[in-house]
Amino acid sequence: MKGIVFSEFIELVEEKFGLEILDAIIEEADLPSQGAYTQVGTYDHKELLVLLDKLSAHSGIDATSLSKIFGEHLLKRFAELYPQFFVDIDNCFDLLKTIDTRVHLEVQQLYPEAELPSFDNMMVNADTMQLIYQSSRPFSALAYGLINGSASYFGETIDIQMNDQSDAGKSFVVFTLKKRA
Ligand code: HEM
């Protein structure tokens, strides 16, 4: 997983939980990288799972909720760092439709070593979209946060339902997203 994801996580922890907790979770996690991430480096995605677990132990917030919070933060940061993906888009469904066909495609071209999930989308009606997340990594809660963050970015509110059909080592989650009037 690209270092940008890790460095944003580290910044969020420092900002929301403080340097002391950040240092403690890095030390306890005992990571191959020692928590020294560069944006362009590549690291084992399991390091993020360990850091989330350690942060959960220190904060008393479960790792799933932390992943969602992180996803929301990450979307805001992506919008700052990669504004080109947000130009000419004025609602969250339109952004979500471009993840596979544009955003992650370009990320993959830029960083061939990146490991991207896939998102198939289908409109159920004008206010409801289905998004199917498939990955060999367990980041559906992060996806949830990124989806919620996309809605907030456009000032929208959506209800998100998750139907998790994952099995060992393979994530398969059907998200049903309903725009609130
Ligand atoms: C709009 C700007 C976005 C950018 C620039 C972006 C970029 C990235 C990058 C660099 C990674 C790390 C890939 C790696 O090296 O392993 C990643 C992973 C991921 N992205 Fe995006 N992304 C964006 C939007 C989204 C949105 C809106 C969603 C949710 C629907 C999403 C879902 C994910 C997930 C779940 C992962 C974790 C990897 C996995 O699950 O297998 N991304 N993205």
TrEMBL record:
Top-rank lineage group of the source organism: Bacteria
SUPFAM superfamilies documented for this protein: Ligand-binding domain in the NO signalling and Golgi transport
InterPro entries tied to this protein: H-NOX_domain_sf (IPR038158), Heme_NO-bd (IPR011644), NO_sig/Golgi_transp_ligand-bd (IPR024096)
GO molecular function terms attached to this record: heme binding
Domain Heme NO-binding: 2-161
A Pfam family assignment: HNOB
Name of the protein: Heme NO-binding domain-containing protein
